[in-house]
Amino acid sequence: MTDLHEQPPRWGFPRRHRLTRPAEFNRVYGEGRRTRQGPLVVHALPNACGHPRLGLSVSKKVGNAVDRNRVKRRLREAFRHLQNQLPGSYDLVITVQPHDVRSRPDCLQLLQHAIEKLHRK
Fold first, then answer.
1. What's the pTM?
2. Confidence band, pLDDT 50/70/90 cuts, at residue 111
């Protein structure tokens, strides 16, 4: 039996879990650490929010709007599944390099490896 006060993990992606302002992106780019994992360049900076936040940057070089939106959906989904398992509270900015569109499990694995690598740094 579970404790009544124990909260189940959240799988949503509310606005407070997103980086929305250019200044937030610039702070992560300027002060954070980065790593490359396949077509993903992940920048990370510890935050004081108590939860991870995500920002995405997908250029037109990746493909047309359909391809870019597919990549963003898959990365947001991967983040949603990983956010409760992340070792710390980080602001993450993911920049996507041109590539063939990856499958959902691929995106999840790439993101997980990149975050683990950054956390070890």
1. 0.82
2. confident
- The Cα 24–Cα 17 span in angstroms is 12
Q: Could you identify the residue written with the tokens 């189940």?
A: 8
Specify which residues 90 forms β-bridges with. Answer: 46
User: pLDDT-based confidence at 11, cuts 50/70/90?
Assistant: low
Within 10 Å of residue 118's Cβ, how many Cβ atoms? 21
Q: Assign residue 120 a region (left: φ > 0; alpha: ψ between -120 and 50; beta: otherwise).
A: alpha
Mean pLDDT over each residue of the chain, to the nearest integer: 84
Cα separation, 107 vs 75, in Å, equals 6
Residue 57 in tokens: 């940057």
Q: How many CA atoms lie within 13 A of 74 on its CB side?
A: 20
Q: Give the contacts of 52 (CB within 8 A, at least 6 positions apart).
A: 17, 79, 83, 86, 88, 89, 90, 91, 92
